[in-house]
Batch of 2 targets.
Target 1
Amino acid sequence: MDFTGQDDQCCDRTLEKEIDDIDQSDQCPERLLVSEKNKTDQYPERPVEPLASDCCGSGCIPCVFDLYEQELKLWKEECRKIRQGGKEICDQEVLCPEKYLGFKLTSIKPVTRDTFMYRFDIPGGARLGLKAGQHIVLRGSINNQTITRQYTPVSELTAQGYFDVLIKLYPGGQMSQCIRSWKEGDLIQWRGPFGLLQYVPNVFSKIIMLAAGTGIAPMTQVIRVILENEDDETLISLVYACRTYEDILMKEQLDQWSGYWNFSVQYVLSQDTQENVIQVKKYNDTVHLGRLNSTLVSQMVPLTERGQVLICGTKSFDKDMINHLKKVGWEMKDIFKF
Ligand SMILES: Cc1cc2nc3c(=O)[nH]c(=O)nc-3n(C[C@H](O)[C@H](O)[C@H](O)COP(=O)(O)OP(=O)(O)OC[C@H]3O[C@@H](n4cnc5c(N)ncnc54)[C@H](O)[C@@H]3O)c2cc1C
């Protein structure tokens, strides 16, 4: 990971350095701090260096010193693995809001004609450190100008060693142009986490989610947190607007969640046809054709006591949804826009 920000107060110790400390500490254990010494408790016993008198001086191959070097190398590797897989590293959350960190892009996978899944490496098996619904800020450069945009990782919040971001590329989009030039192995600059949603289980009896396109990203974080908590009895009703059936993102994941008693999803497709949908849809998909207008919102999102509505889409989608919801009687205090 490349720490390229200016603020040295924060995140100034790289994970690589922590792991590399093993190399130094095994040479000179007394240099370790007390806390570092505690970490070494789990290490296997260090090989004992032969005395000069242990060598017979006959030029044996391998010599006792060669064997010692091999043993030492293996021991270092084992210590490194313990350090990487151990609690100290895995419990670390690497993100920093004040400073951009470079994360290595490890894969790019097409999801639809214009949306791609980008996976980034987090060294040492650490976690990103996001809460449900939070996003991160990407820094890019185009025509020698620095630009920033927000994105919401869709990988599990507890994922260790990687994070995934689902990004739609727009033909005229500035950051989209920058992202199109990414290659596997590039270091990409992110900082965070940001976001004001603070999800508390069982506060609302029902959460209605209105999402459009990649606006599904923050919803998936909240859905996962609710469904993975057996004590959380919140009902989730997702209304997901896309252009066509093929544009539905994270469909497999949504199908899997549909098996939970407290989750349901309805798709609203603005540019699809009856013929296509009949051919491609799964038997238990609920699909509406047309735009998510005032009439449809009043049917799908009736005013619910102890309910909350989450909205994430384009600026115009968000604005339209808030207007439709107000007509139905929803108050702004029960509406959250990502
Ligand atoms: C909190 C938050 C989280 C976000 N998370 C994600 C995410 O996980 N994945 C993701 O792909 N995007 C996400 N976005 C949107 C993202 O930040 C950018 O706005 C988007 O990638 C477009 O940036 P751009 O520089 O390519 O386009 P810009 O240069 O900003 O825009 C150029 C043109 O592209 C079109 N355009 C741009 N954005 C949109 C849009 N959202 N809908 C329709 N047309 C648009 C418009 O015609 C616009 O005039 C998020 C936004 C916010 C605020």
Note: The CA atoms of residues 204 and 306 lie 5 Å apart.
Target 2
Amino acid sequence: MNESLVQYRHFRHQLKYPTPVDNLDTGTECPACFQNPTKIISMDADFQLVRKFSSGKLSSEPKHLGKFFVCQADVDAHIAIYLTVPSQDKSCSEFQAGSALRSKIKNKKLDETAVFGSACRHSFPKLFFNLKHGERIGYSVFLVEKLLAETHNQQLHVFYDIACLLKSHLKKNKKYDILEKVNLVLPIFHCYGHKMNCQILYSPRRTSGVGLTDGECLERLWSYLGKFSNITKEMTPENRTDLLVDALIYYGHKIRNKLGYSLVLKYQKAQALKETSTKLFEESLQPFSAQCVTPSEVQKWSDDERLQTQTQIRKNQNENYTPEEAYAVNLRQYQHFQQSLLICNASTRYDIEKKCARIIKDLSRFERNTNCTRWDMESNRFQLAAELAKSKEILCSLSDLHQSVSERRFLLQLLKKYASKY
Ligand SMILES: [Zn+2]
Ligand SMILES: [Zn+2]
């Protein structure tokens, strides 16, 4: 009975989109993206769409093979051998975004933990696959590579809610071929959850070429697909894929039907906004006409702000201690802990001893590597390294202070612009 329904659904699809000849419409292509020189795509994972181990194993190929869902074996093979250079970038570590993994806790009962997908700027579904772990950064790299291959290496703007981490990961792993072709952007609402630096570098309103795209179209798609999560988690892999593809075809079909109407509306809205913004911009420049503040001057300020942010990030990354400086810092800390042990009470003794043991390990490693004995704290080499470490520490603190002040100013401006209106 179940199989008859599946066959019937597939038969209906074939009637609508007959595909005996190549290059015919399969209902999986966005007509508005056709031959656009630059493509704008959003990608994200949906952790509602899981599948239980107990729901069965793959016994045949999905009927919609090759539509929307890419070959899962390719994804698994990519992830199995994907090695990453760990990122030092802590810029967004306090947010949900992790350095290499954004781990939703792996549930041992789940075979597929999520669906990772992409859609174009018109919200038309594009490429999808299943996740077997948390949201590993390797999955997003795989999807970006796949999208580049699909679009024949066209220039891409990719919206991703951890665009900052993906970019720093690609730089660390020297994936310059991707960085050349892909411009990473944060979706507009997710953007406000990131640090000021990310908002300046990756906000869609500060990125040229993306227009008024908000990059949040996948949230709307996930909200629609979420309705199927209860039934798809109990299905075999092939039936689950077929049902999700049917749902995606239907979703795409609805978008196509209203595309003409929605594009006209969007065009009119963009034109009206352009006129209003130009007028407001000119009015706000009026009081400064005596100082010759021109629109190009304002553009230069914006470019400078971007440049300064990039320089700041680079500077922070370079301000790490050399091995000698780290050794001197450790040695001084060790001495400090030794003195604390003489006066501490029993409850704090254990903690201090643990810290001491960790420091001794680091000190011994350095001494082994450089073939030296413990430095005398009165020696010149210790004094010099400790002095250099101290000045780096001061610079770092000043830079942190500057960063916090700038960030506070930036957030207060946002508050003034948006929140205080309501
Ligand atoms: Zn499109
Ligand atoms: Zn960020």
Note: The chain has three domains: 35-257, 264-318, 323-415.
